[in-house]
Write a structure and sequence with these properties.
Distance between the termini: 37 Å
Largest sheet: none
Order of helices and strands: HHHHHHHHH
Helix content: over 70%
Radius of gyration: 20 Å
Oligomer: single chain
Number of strands: 0
Shape: elongated
Length: 193
């Protein structure tokens, strides 16, 4: 929120834009290998400055030019977040779903987060039935997460709870009651009880 910091972030984003333009003009691969990193950093600067359109454009450009990059899933997650900030909820939901679909074995915690975010958006758009398959996927993936840390435990609990709520909202009757009963048995004393 500090205006001086925001200004430095904007200046940095513009410097990355300048370096991207110059790198594209240099023949050969020496400059080209820095392009993905520069584009990511430009998006991060825009994001930190709260300039969501710039962040969205940087992330979208990165994904268009480098769809198989090792950071593509994380950048797609960031792109979805930028879309949320711009109130582009349909696009955000699609990007979160795509981030989950593209997540590798080491990114399953991010996949669960993406599925939860996509389902929250669908529920806010009054489409709880569309959220149910995403939440079933999230519950399945969350159950396989490795780790005993608080964040992993929170993801497991949230996935089960959100799935139960989406079933209730969609009018799933007995299935909703069964899911809620299973959730309460699995997580006694949770903050959602």
């Amino acid at each position: 929120d500090d205006p001086a910091v925001i200004e430095r972030l904007r200046r940095a984003a513009n410097l990355f834009a300048d370096s991207l333009q110059r790198a594209a003009e240099v023949p050969g691969k020496s400059a080209a290998r820095h392009i993905p990193t520069a584009r990511i950093n430009q998006g991060l600067c825009f994001q930190a400055a709260g300039e969501w359109k710039g962040a969205r454009e940087s992330y979208a450009s990165f994904l268009k030019l480098h769809p198989d990059h090792k950071l593509a899933t994380r950048i797609r997650f960031s792109l979805a977040g930028a879309c949320v900030e711009l109130n582009e909820m349909e696009d955000a939901q699609q990007h979160y779903s795509q981030a989950a679909a593209g997540a590798g074995a080491q990114e399953q915690d991010l996949a669960v987060r993406a599925l939860l975010q996509a389902s929250v958006i669908l529920r806010r758009l009054e489409r709880p039935k569309d959220a149910i398959p995403l939440l079933k996927d999230a519950v399945g993936r969350a159950g396989k997460l490795q780790g005993n840390d608080a964040e992993t435990a929170r993801l497991v609990v949230d996935a089960g709870y959100q799935h139960s709520v989406a079933l209730i909202e969609s009018g799933a009757g007995e299935e909703a009651l069964g899911a809620l009963s299973t959730y309460l048995e699995s997580f006694p004393g949770s903050r959602n009880e």
